[in-house]
Amino acid sequence: MDEELPRVLQQLWGIEGRQRPGPKPAFHISDIARAAVKLADAGGLAAVSMSKVAAELGFTTMSLYRYVDAKDDLYVVMLEHAFGTPPDLDAHTGWRDRITAWALAFRDGLRQHPWILQIPVTEPPLSPNQLTWMESALQAFDGTPLSPPDRLSSMLLVNIYVRGTAQLTAGMHTEPDAAREADLRYTRRLAMLATPDRFPGIAATLEQPPSEGYAGDFDTAEFTFGLDTVLDGIQALIDRRG
Fold it and tell me: Cα torsion at 71, 77, 81, 86 (round to 10°)?
């Protein structure tokens, strides 16, 4: 099996593959992950390069190639380290509470490391933590009549929704007070520009009470509304299957 897996996955899974010739490795692949994540957290994905990661570790760039073959491998290692393990889901709650807890934890991970959204998705996840996240979401649907393919599709739907909203609001996450002021400022400006004669739909929304219309809260209210709507759709599927 080790011959079928890229070398970076062999290391993440603890599978002994063919060793490269040369001196004994001076550090572990997790050290590379921590160094790369530190650089990305400070300066975004553009701040990460093989040479900069090597410098952060105090080694030469060539020494990294004993662990990763290319920058894409470095991304795999970064994602594995950044997300960690998924939250413990309470088996005594319903599927909706469990998948909501999973979605919120996923969102929090993307907020903490927004550069994750800049990494191209070229293939499904294969690293240990990434598969653990997938398994956790699938098990959130335990007790429902959903088939394994239904569960996978439902998990992907929630995943896509969380990633999409995180991408939309990636530049909006600041201190809470500043975020609220930014929301209010946007709402005021929107009200000035979206006149009823030209933008009747937007104007009608702004005329509603905050509890019923648009409150300018991208970060909480809109995320919750969208997630609840997605889960309503999954509930409809569950009702049909049941």
Answer: 120
